[in-house]
Amino acid sequence: MNVITRFAPSPTGMLHIGGARTALFNYLFAKRHNGKFLLRIEDTDRARSTDEATAAILEGMDWLGLTPDEAPVMQFSQAARHTEVANEMIARGTAFRCYATPEELQARRDLGEEKRQAAKAEGISEAEKTALLAEANELLAPYRSPWRDGAPSPSADAPFTVRLRAPDGGDRILEDGVQGRVTIQASELDDMILLRADGTPTYMLAVVVDDHDMGVTHVIRGDDHLRNAFRQIPIYEAMGWDVPTFAHVSLIHGPDGAKLSKRHGALSTLAYREMGYLPEAMKAYLLRLGWSHGDQEIFTEAEAISLFDVEGINKAPARLDLEKLGQINSHFMRLADDDRLFELLKPLLEAEAPLSEAEAGRVRTALPHMKDRGTTLPELAAAFAFLRDIRPIEMNKKARKALSEEGLDRLAGLRDELQQLRQWTAETISLVISSYCADRDLSMGQVGQPLRAALTGGLPAPDIAPVLEWLGQDEALGRIEDQTAKAGT
């Protein structure tokens, strides 16, 4: 089937993770069906839309690799087309000019509220109460304009809005890809404004016209737009256009089950980049926020494209779980190309001072063996701290305890053995340490603990022989000598 999807954010703020997930679902669905994924920036709210927000949205999508197949459409630039469609609907008789003023509409609402409050007064009869509530409900019901059936204008130059002639009576049914069959009464829909009194098109009109003109076949969006579908479909019908297939996805909630908000942590997609998550991990995590395929937990992009379907989207809201995100990120850091990972880590490693050539070499050598040392890039960068030129090394409490007089004596003897090595590799170093321990009837712990303390200051590190190799013979022996010299050995 021919598939065209779109992501249509409003540039009034950041690209939050809920929006990023919507974009991802649309991207994957289009790619699964060899279709097109499009982007529209809905900037019709001129007071709140900013170039900075637009740039942030584009940057966030670029970081995630959600590249649209065509240049983004800027909704405000299509305003003339939106107006043209509204005027065509007037000619078709599916829209009309309405001369009700804002003041008249507000007075209508105020009167309806007054009657509703009057129905609560003490001392009125049930008949009076029933009559008042009936009048209130009529006044507060979705507005049906007296001009919908061709009433004349009050004057030739009277201001007007253009309204859609809402469907008359009966059920309105939406077969939603996620929510299933949803039904409302046509009486719940008002004669919706399409063009304001100043001639500017409304959001509801603009969305439908743009989706039609862009050829959108499937609208996948948050379920906060579910009600909008019932208001937008009559516009398609009024123009005789094909109605796209709708799928409304439940929103993301916080760990406590409440709607996601700032108190739950970072919301901006780019904030997660700054927190040290990889884009492929973010996509894999967002995919599983509300979608599933059997018991599989982690998907590559190729796997996601081959498997994604709307039927796999859950009705229930997904819950944000940063611990799970960390596990997925750790998985993708282990898979990451070493050169790419080094470049991502480098700014973090150089936060306080640039890496020397020797330090960079140590990190590059150690990197393939230390990818599992964190769940985010900052955590992983911290694991390489012991490879910096940090002499004299700072000792934590545990390291100081390991460097007892007895421990320092053993280090001094080991230093003498290590100095004789001609080939400085983890394998030869391990043999020397094992031989030294065996000759003196020492356990590995009796030598390894003070050695680790001297080399790392107590910082977490992998097996000691690779650490010695990565540091290099001069640096490793220098660190040992720094400690043994203190004891005068």
UniProtKB/TrEMBL annotation:
Aminoacyl-tRNA synthetase class I anticodon-binding domain location: 340-482
Motif mapping: 'KMSKS' region: 259-263
Cellular localisation: Cytoplasm
Enzyme Commission identifier(s): 6.1.1.17
UniProt GO cellular component terms: cytosol
Placement of sequence motif 'HIGH' region: 9-19
BP term (GO), one: glutamyl-tRNA aminoacylation
Domain Glutamyl/glutaminyl-tRNA synthetase class Ib catalytic, first and last residues per copy: 3-325
Subunit description: Monomer.
Protein's job: Catalyzes the attachment of glutamate to tRNA(Glu) in a two-step reaction: glutamate is first activated by ATP to form Glu-AMP and then transferred to the acceptor end of tRNA(Glu).
Protein name from the UniProt record: Glutamate--tRNA ligase
Origin species: Hyphomonas atlantica
Lineage of origin: Bacteria, Pseudomonadati, Pseudomonadota, Alphaproteobacteria, Hyphomonadales
Gene name of the encoded protein: gltX
